[in-house]
């Protein structure tokens, strides 16, 4: 990052954790002097509506109003991912002020997004935590779970299963493990669906579709409040927001359920 100049202009991205500063629901736009951004640390991270998008280093004791990045899931993917990029860069810079090898102070490099130790020269890059997320189908039914964090007395949101990939584990192994750990179900026919950066604070969601093989639902009660098989043609519970890869996985699986049902009829 470098000092923002008075003459720098465009859209401005200020973050606090996974929250963004918005004015009337939009990123502030204009000259740096208009918002008092001159001499703050910042960098150009892309284009927003055809104009430069500047990321400002996270500010301490900032009294501006911030809103969750989740509230902007309705945006086109390209824009949502660009905002996620800004959130994750600031998270990286904030959490890597010191060298993890020798403990001395880090400084940001000029040639790339990285932090380098002023003592031993060890260079660190933004850390991304890979996570799997999977929708499981059994004939014309989809497996959905109500996680503890989503539980509400009235029911709460039901979604697909997900979890972090462990060291020395493939994505496919992580899919098998997470489904079995959380529900006791064995699955087969795992295939890649898509991915989504998830800046809460620095995950990469890697999505899969899978088919049921065997087993009865047995909950991992420390994480899952409830899990059920839901038929595609019956009313579904509250689902994840549109724009999430979880919602896309559910929609794709419901379409597969419909195809399977149509084949039965013919």
UniProtKB/TrEMBL annotation:
UniProt domain Nudix hydrolase: residue ranges: 127-253
Record's keyword terms, sorted: Hydrolase, Magnesium, Manganese, Metal-binding, NAD, Zinc
GO BP, one annotated term: NAD+ catabolic process
Chain sites annotated for binding substrate: 70, 112, 125, 196-203, 246
Superkingdom, natural source: Bacteria
Chain positions recorded as a divalent metal cation 3 binding sites: 178, 182, 223
Obligatory cofactor(s): Zn(2+); Mg(2+); Mn(2+)
Membrane-crossing segments per the record: none
SUPFAM superfamilies found in the cross-reference section: Nudix
UniProt: a divalent metal cation 1 binding residues: 162, 182, 223
Reaction(s) catalysed (UniProt annotation): NAD(+) + H2O = beta-nicotinamide D-ribonucleotide + AMP + 2 H(+); NADH + H2O = reduced beta-nicotinamide D-ribonucleotide + AMP + 2 H(+); a 5'-end NAD(+)-phospho-ribonucleoside in mRNA + H2O = a 5'-end phospho-adenosine-phospho-ribonucleoside in mRNA + beta-nicotinamide D-ribonucleotide + 2 H(+)
InterPro entries with a match to the protein in the record: NAD-cap_RNA_hydrolase_NudC, NudC-like_C, NUDIX_hydrolase-like_dom_sf, NUDIX_hydrolase_CS, NUDIX_hydrolase_dom, RNA_Hydrolase_NudC, Znr_NADH_PPase
Binding, a divalent metal cation 2: 178
Gene3D superfamilies: 3.90.79.20, Nucleoside Triphosphate Pyrophosphohydrolase
Protein name as catalogued: NAD-capped RNA hydrolase NudC
Pfam families for the chain: NUDIX (PF00293), Zn_ribbon_NUD (PF09297)
Record has Protein transport as a keyword: no
Molecular function (Gene Ontology), one example: magnesium ion binding
């Amino acid at each position: 990052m470098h000092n923002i100049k008075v003459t720098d202009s465009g859209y401005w991205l200020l973050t606090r954790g996974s929250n963004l500063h918005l004015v009337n629901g939009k990123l502030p736009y204009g000259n740096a002097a208009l918002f008092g951004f001159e001499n703050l640390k910042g960098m150009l991270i892309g284009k927003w509506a055809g104009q430069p998008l500047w990321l400002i280093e996270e500010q301490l004791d900032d009294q501006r109003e911030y809103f969750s990045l989740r509230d902007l899931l309705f945006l086109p993917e390209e824009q949502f991912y660009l905002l996620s990029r800004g959130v994750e860069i600031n998270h990286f810079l904030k959490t890597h002020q010191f060298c993890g090898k020798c403990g001395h102070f880090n400084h940001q490099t000029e040639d790339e997004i990285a932090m380098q130790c002023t003592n031993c020269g060890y260079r660190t890059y933004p850390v991304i935590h890979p996570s799997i997320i999977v929708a499981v189908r059994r004939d014309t039914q989809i497996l959905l779970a109500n996680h503890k964090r989503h539980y509400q007395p009235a029911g709460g949101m039901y979604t697909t299963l997900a979890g972090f990939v462990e060291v020395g584990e493939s994505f496919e192994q992580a899919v098998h493990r997470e489904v079995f750990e959380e529900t006791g179900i064995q699955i087969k026919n795992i295939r890649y669906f898509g991915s989504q950066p998830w800046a809460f604070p620095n995950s990469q969601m890697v999505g899969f579709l899978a088919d049921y093989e065997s087993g009865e639902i047995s909950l991992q009660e420390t994480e899952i409040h409830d899990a059920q098989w839901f038929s595609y043609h019956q009313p579904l519970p509250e689902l994840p927001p549109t724009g999430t890869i979880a919602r896309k996985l559910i929609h794709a699986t419901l379409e597969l359920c419909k195809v399977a049902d149509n084949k039965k009829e013919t």
